[in-house]
Amino acid sequence: IESLIQKQLTTTEVARLQLQEEQYTNTMTQWSTSIDILSKQENANTSIVTAQIENLKSNINNNKRIIADGKRAIAASNILKTSTSAPITKVNFVPRSTHLKDASHVADTEADNRAGSIKNVEEANAELAAPAYVRSVMRAALIGSQRRQENTSQTLSEQELAWKSLDKLLKDFLGSLINFELNDKLNIRLANIEGDYCTLLSDGQKILFQLACKLHAQGSKLQDSVILMDEPENHLHPAVLNQVIDDLLKVLGTGQIWIATHSVPLIAHLLAKEPDCLWYADGGEFSRAGRSPEKVLNGLMGGPDGSVAMQSLTQLPGVYAAQRFLGECLTQPSVAGPNTNDPQTKQISEILINHTKNHDKKLRMIDFGAGVGRLLATLTAESGNKTAGQLIDYIAYEPDTSKHANLLREIRNFYPSENDSSTRICSDLHNIKIDSESVNVIVMCNVLHEICPDTWPDYFNENSPLMRSLTSDGYLLVVEDYEIPVGERAHSYGFLLLDEPELRKLFSIQEADYKERRFLRATSNIPQYKNRLSAHLIEKSCVVRFTTNTRREAIRHLNSRMLTQVTTHLSTDSTSSSQGRSYGRSAQLFANSSIWINQHDNQ
Prior knowledge:
Elements: H1 2-6, H2 11-40, H3 47-79, E1 89-92, H4 108-116, H5 126-150, H6 158-174, E2 180-182, E3 188-190, H7 197-200, H8 203-217, E4 225-230, H9 238-251, E5 256-260, H10 264-273, E6 279-282, E7 285-288, H11 294-300, H12 304-330, H13 343-357, E8 363-368, H14 374-381, E9 392-397, H15 404-414, E10 425-426, E11 439-445, H16 457-460, H17 465-469, E12 470-481, H18 500-506, H19 511-515, E13 519-523, E14 533-539, H20 540-543, H21 548-570, H22 577-600
Parallel strand pairs: 1-4, 4-5, 8-9, 8-11, 9-10, 11-12
Antiparallel strand pairs: 2-3, 6-7, 12-14, 13-14
Helix pairs in contact: 2-3, 4-5, 5-6, 5-8, 6-8, 8-9, 11-12, 12-13, 12-14, 14-15, 18-21, 21-22
């Protein structure tokens, strides 16, 4: 990055190189003509003529190298385009400490040495140099002010102007309410605030304090500066680094920040603000990553598999939040954890627990699409003083047998004293080894949207193995994340995310079902998931109302609702990433439901 700035050419230098290329090209043409003439002479094979020809060829090759060097210099200069004729000032800045060290604790000579080193100081010592520099500028301004007053001059001294410009820079970076002054011992402090500024300033403000001092000491103007930061993530917490970058962007004007980084959090933060800011370096070659950051992620994460693993990791908070929310619905309020005061969730859990309380039985449940048993892990963690296995009789339905080993491990942790837990796993509902009408609740956590609607009759018809397993007053518990961050191709129609309006259509829910608590809805009490995670508790008597006609009504309703959402998105000016994801999700659901409707209209 520094070399690009150093290689910038003035207009005069570019013109000189272009003229040189023209002159050297003409000269080479003349030399080539001379070579042809010499080659055709009768004495062309003599040593003298041969030496002349070789000398001309050497001169031509030398000119070619000079012309090529000139072209490369012009090309390198053209990489950077500036909006001003002013020279670019580069400012290397990668602070390595957020612990400012005030100069009041050292001798004045040491403080002066620190202050004088700020221009070229290694960033490792910026936390020492910056406070000393501010004190030095303020002390000089005080002396300049006293001399001006003695001379009754109205013109600010050079020292006063220096402090005025530094003070403005500090306010630009730290906020207009931050005011520094000298105390009676001529050491700096925050005006009208008790305490040491070295501890009162935030970590981000301490970094910006150091940068402001370095810019001022170098006489750099922000609007003409390129701030170079080399892997700042090595020294700063991601949250602090992101805040520093955000604060810098607010005051940079036409200046720029160039960052060499391997930090995925920083890249994600910057891409959310400016999708075109990303460039990728590979083997010394730079290319614009633009709106295709996957190649950058693949490079940083060790290939596509690493990127997939990272994507899975970032989704885990939402996944675990859903599992925990489900746990609250399945366990008694006394053992569910910190969010049990939510009235809707509490209502669902009370209904389920009451099914078994009077008969001193466990709550028997089928975890439909159990995966690797995350729900069990959550229930174990949330069980409080009572073992979760004493509350729940767990059965897992997971058709993907490759997940059974991990699933069995979680079941054994859930039932540590059980001899053979493998009987709790089923991969085919037709072969499930349980009595009819013995299950209190069937749980579908982030699963219903992945089930192909063509197979819904296999699960919701009254005579299906799943419905036969439910007690007459048993329930289907559907939990979904209605702001899933990524799209899926779970089946031939992608995915279909049914919310309360569609579930009402799917199971012919009536007003009386709400009153009799045969159909209940609860949302997460965790603030960031309040509008994302919802649970629907649906009694068996409602579920078995399912028909192919109710399926058509539900999907048609989803299609209509998504069309309305897409239209709303297109009429708004918001460009936030969350709005973008919402628009993409709505558009995809509209397309998916349209495909299903198109294929089933005449059926």
